[in-house]
Design goal:
Distance between the termini: 142 Å
Shape: rod-shaped
CATH architecture of the largest domain: Sandwich
Number of domains: 4
Radius of gyration: 50 Å
Strand order of the largest sheet: 22-23-30-29-26
Structural class: mainly beta
Largest sheet: 5 strands, mixed
């Protein structure tokens, strides 16, 4: 009787403890502290851990989130910190053209790592630069290594080659086909595509005597005429025909001698039989053609030669006009007077030297302009 009671009690105990054993293990625990779950009752796959009674779980990266270890032999009620053990990246090109950009993306494993921060580094910033957010920029030509790194030193490296971008065409970026004599300016050569890697240019002139050009594209207008400036990049060329034009006078000013006589009203006067040298100043000073045509309103009163020398012949008022090649003109009024008491004739503004030469000194006619200056 006692034996039957013992068998009955044992059977009841097994029935009572069976569900708990199934919940805790669902299979026999192996040497790693886990066990198979062939029917995936836990929903974690075909293998999981309990680690001494904890809910079914995985050991991501070999670390138990409850005990901090990979075995069920030690237990802790506080989960250990999970660190990133590897990095996965995407959108990382193996080759990229100079001037191009790309946005790199990366994530850490395991996904429940506490610190998922990733920093980026370039082995050669003269070839590739990378921002803190993973924006990659190809700034040179060559090969560099980009490194993605976690806060605990886990890293992954990528080797990227930056290719040269060849020019498809070149063009001298200047629409002006004229330049004034004596002027200079720098021509610029544009490239297609814009991110062409090598933008070196050789400059040449069809006639350096007319237009000379430096290695950096600066042209200088040396002589009136036409010359062709050519830009050459490898097998590509472009040319520009440029005309050197004279600098025209915008205005002229008649210059009087310092010892000129004036009447009571301040007007210039010249004694009959005397001569006076007139000269001209040009605006701008670098006017190309400085030839002047002289004329008088009354040749019976005074005459003027091609060099601007006035000869007073008879009493009266005469208008002297100077005309530049550009058409700019200037006039001056001269009063010719006679002096019977003075026999000698003078040459105002001309100091006659041994061989008939002259030392000339001039002043501006317009007093208002002189005051402004």
């Amino acid at each position: 009787m006692k034996k039957r009671i013992l068998i009955l009690v044992t059977t009841l105990m097994m029935i009572i403890t069976l569900p708990f054993s199934a919940f805790a293990h669902g299979g026999r625990t192996d040497g790693s502290g886990g066990h198979k779950d062939n029917k995936n009752k836990s929903g974690l796959g075909g293998y999981h851990y309990h680690c001494g009674g904890y809910p079914a779980h995985l050991h991501t990266g070999g670390v138990c989130p409850y005990t901090g270890g990979g075995s069920s032999s030690s237990y802790s009620s506080t989960p250990k910190t999970v660190y990133a053990t590897s990095i996965t990246a995407k959108n990382v090109p193996s080759k990229i053209n100079a001037g191009d950009t790309a946005t790199l993306e990366a994530s850490v494993y395991p996904s429940n790592a506490e610190d998922k921060t990733i920093t980026w580094e370039s082995s050669d910033s003269s070839i590739l630069t990378v921002s803190s957010s993973g924006v990659l920029t190809a700034v040179g030509v060559g090969t560099a290594t980009i490194t993605a790194k976690t806060s605990r030193g886990t890293s992954k490296k990528f080797t990227i080659t930056v290719n040269e971008v060849a020019a498809e065409s070149i063009s001298i970026a200047d629409n002006e086909t004229e330049i004034l004599l004596g002027d200079n300016k720098t021509l610029i050569c544009s490239f297609t595509p814009d991110n062409t890697t090598d933008k070196s240019v050789e400059w040449s002139s069809s006639d350096e005597a007319i237009i000379s050009v430096s290695a950096d594209g600066e042209i200088t207008a040396n002589k009136i005429g036409v010359a062709t400036i050519t830009a050459t990049h490898k097998e590509l060329t472009d040319a520009l025909l440029i005309e050197v034009k004279p600098v025209d006078a915008k205005s002229i000013d008649i210059i009087l001698p310092e010892d000129v006589e004036t009447n009571d009203s301040g007007k210039t006067k010249l004694k009959k039989g005397s001569q006076m040298q007139l000269n001209v100043e040009f605006e701008p000073e670098n006017t190309t053609y400085k030839d002047v045509e002289w004329s008088v309103s009354e040749e019976g009163i005074a005459t003027v030669d091609e060099n601007g020398v006035i000869t007073a012949r008879a009493s009266g008022i005469v208008i002297v006009t100077a005309t530049a090649k550009s058409g700019a003109t200037e006039e001056i009024e001269i009063e010719v007077y006679s002096d019977a008491g003075n026999i000698a004739t003078g040459i105002v503004g001309l100091a006659v030297l041994g061989g008939g030469g002259a030392a000339l000194y001039y002043k501006k006619k317009k007093k208002k302009e002189a005051e402004i200056e």
